[in-house]
Design goal:
Blueprint: H1 14-17, E1 24-26, H2 28-35, E2 43-44, H3 53-61, E3 67-71, H4 81-94, E4 104-106, H5 113-116, H6 119-133, E5 137-141, H7 144-149, H8 153-164, E6 168-171, H9 183-195, E7 206-210, H10 219-224, E8 228-232, H11 238-242, E9 249-252, H12 255-269, H13 282-295, H14 299-324, E10 328-333, H15 335-347, E11 351-357, H16 373-381, E12 386-389, H17 394-404, E13 408-411, H18 414-422, E14 427-429, H19 438-453, H20 456-464, H21 472-476, E15 483-484
Parallel strand pairs: 3-4, 3-5, 5-6, 7-8, 7-9, 10-11, 10-13, 11-12, 13-14
Antiparallel strand pairs: 1-12, 2-15
Bound molecules: iron/sulfur cluster.
Length: about 500
Amino acid sequence: MSTINLNEASVEIRERRLGSVTGFCGSAKELVDCSCGGLKDMKRGFSQCLGCNSGQAFCQLSMIRDAAVVNHAPVGCAGDFFGFNFTYRVEQTHRGLPEAYGRYFCTCIEEHDTIFGAVQKLENTVRRAYERVHPKAIFVTTSCASGIIGEDIESVLDALSEELGVPVVSAPCEGFRSRVWTTGFDAAYHAILRKIVKPPRKKTNKVNIVNFWGSHIFDELLGALGYEAQYIVPLSTIEELEHISEAAATIHVCPSLSTYIAAGLEQLYGVPELKVPPAYGLRGTDRWVRGLGKLLDREKEVEEYIKSEHSRVEPVIEEYRKKFDGLTAFVTAGAAHGQAIVALLSELGLKVKTAAIYHHDPIYDNGDPKSDLLAQDVELYGDVPTYHVCNKQSFELVNQLRRAKPDLMVARHGGMTIWGAKLGIPTMLVGDEQFGFGYQGIINYARRIEDTLDAIEFVTNLSKHSSNPYTDWWLKQEPGHFMEGGRKNA
Ligand code: SF4
């Protein structure tokens, strides 16, 4: 059954749409087995802090180069504007684009607005945004406060679209809507699919690559196959987004990010989605490249590419395998990217014994169980004995990390790396998903691991001067102590 319903202003949350969970204690294999049916979320009796849907929607919408974003929220919800503006400006420089500030506005809902209404503030802010920056489209992200007020924002925005002559589009993403913060990505894509993307005029040779703001590693391969890489959504324009329905295919770098838009483009406009799990690790990359060749009708060409890449990277990888043999690793990251890191480390001979992953999607919007990267990891590299879905709860992560005592910690998000360093564990942060993608990605990772392991003296010294905020009582409990309920239905 299709999960895409553009008649509704709000995207259905991942818990209901995909059966996603934010709590699980077990092994990777058990999680894969449960994902085939009967996976049940383990609720927490205690939580430290959570990611917010609103931030993830903003993450995708805030770097569309000629759009503006209005956050219909108290000003505190806009506290992440500066970070996205920083990234936006850095990535413009990387791409040689003209310098521009982010076009971000907030309605600054106050206490009395929650009683008397905030629609007038919304209208005023949208008009002010239009007058100031003349965007090609305005996205309105919502918040817990605007959600609680419960006003009919949709009809207000429709009227403003008429008045201003540009799409003014809601992206409902109240923090309390979903415990799975990646629902915010879906909210952004739902808004783009509903009000920006147009039916195709003709088919092109472009391939949509749904990503954050990663490096442009697909240009060469796709160019050699006669196709053109089109990186979306950050750093694209409204005009480019209007025509993503004309692309020859859609590729994921991280299905946790882009499951919704890829399925939407396929189901609504026939743009085929590459459903093979993304290319992490040697064998995973072989599988992905063959899948791409089949999708783009270039099966013969990709076999030559695989052969030449193997002869280039295998001897290098073999040397690193010898070097890393016997080392253990701890992984913490979002769902699909965490699974990608497990594949990369396993390929390089490290043993991933523990993973603290933020959530888990048992299936993606395409409904194809073969797209599951975790199942591929277990099949190709074996089980991860402790695979904990931790919803980014630092207190659980620290407890687990102390038990695991790994030789290396790899994290995808900045706030988590400090815990490894404080415990004297060499810790590596990789923010660019594309960094580890494909054949070259394995070597990129190996070099970064080598550098990180060299920093052992630094983290050892750091740990001697670090304090731990958690009590001895907590550190003696099981990491899943505050989780309630079983991991499977009885
Ligand atoms: S939308 Fe809600 S959860 Fe998100 S930042 Fe605002 S108040 Fe916090």
